[in-house]
Amino acid sequence: MIKAKKSLGQNFLIDKYILEKIVNLIEINEKNILEIGPGTGNLTLCILKKKPKKIIVIEKDKKLALNLEQKFSDKITVINGDVLEIDETSLFKEKFIVFGNLPYNISTEILSKWIVNLKDNFWFDHLVLMFQKEVADRIISKFDTSTYGRLSILANWKLKIDKICDIKPESFFPKPKVDSSLLLFSPKNKIFKIKDPKNLEKVTRVFFSHRRKMLKKPFNQLFNGNQKILDKLNINLNLRPQNLDFETYYQLTSEYENLIS
Q1: For the chain, give me the number of helices (H) and strands (E)?
Q2: What is the fold, at CATH topology level, of the domain defined by 6-187?
Q3: Neighbouring residues of 254: CB distance < 8 A, sequence distance ≥ 6
Q4: Which helix (H) or strand (E) holds 128?
Q5: Can you tell me whether residue 88 is helix, strand or coil?
Q6: How far are the Cα atoms of 11, 18, 181, 227 from residue 100, in angstroms, in the given order?
Q7: How much is the pTM?
Q8: Are 41 and 72 in contact (CB under 8 A)?
Q9: Residues pairing with 161 in the sheet
Q10: Contact predicate 248/200, CB 8 Å
Q11: What number of other Cβ atoms are within 10 A of residue 87's Cβ?
Q12: How far is CA 219 from the centre of its chain?
């Protein structure tokens, strides 16, 4: 019997209704599929029934990886490794769809890595990802809310995000202590031009390192009190980081890139 490892944030999805809902979200027939953290292969099996072109799964747990190889034989390609150390863009020659019941302990790290590594061309058609509900709420939150922050700004830069549903602990084994949420990410057509996503990461990190304090300190740290930028973007330094919308942070990043170039 396979036991879930707490250290790897493993909670296996066992709810047939939710599994079917996930694979019916988008067309996957004859598509290339990457699955992150397949665990015991419950979702993998549902994906296979839809007759995709090819499936690659990434499973960090060695025992689970061996089990998947035995269970599915040559129907899938199993990579026993850490998704944070793998270059996902090299796995297929064409765009693919990503499914993932992401380990709670590294889910934000995985998403941030993918966003920061996005070039002009998207390497995926869609991301269908499950997060701890609290994390999902942060990803989809709007400005002027308590959950709005770096993750919201990064995720919404190039991606359209739809919340599909919340999922109760009873849908997993073992049961997590919190609810989960399923999100669908799709590439945006119109994207604010930023030269290097790492600059967006830096600007938001500086501003949200003191999220309850006024904007004056982080602004001065990055822009040395540049009044022209304040006037151009119409920013009030008495506001707090959560009071600036997505577009303003993208514009601030562009101004920052101009300063350091």
Answers
A1: 10, 9
A2: Rossmann fold (3.40.50)
A3: 192, 193, 194
A4: strand 124-132
A5: helix
A6: 12, 13, 12, 45
A7: 0.93
A8: yes
A9: 185
A10: no
A11: 8
A12: 27
Provide the pLDDT for residue 7. Answer: 46
* Strand order through the sheet with 32-36: 77-79, 54-58, 32-36, 96-101, 124-132, 180-187, 159-167
Helix, strand, or coil here: 78?
strand
All residue ranges of the chain with pLDDT < 50 are 1, 4-9
Provide the token pair at 106.
Answer: 């590294």
The token duo for 194 is 């930023």
Which CATH code of 3.40.50.11600, 3.40.50.80, 3.10.20.740, 1.10.8.100 fits the domain covering 197-260? 1.10.8.100
The domain segmentation of the chain, as residue ranges, is 6-187, 197-260
Task: Return the pLDDT at 120.
Answer: 73
Rounded to whole angstroms, the Cα distance separating 241 from 204 reads 9
Q: Is residue 174 reached through a cis peptide bond, with omega within 30 degrees of 0 on the bond before it?
A: yes
The CA distance from 152 to 196, in Å, is: 18
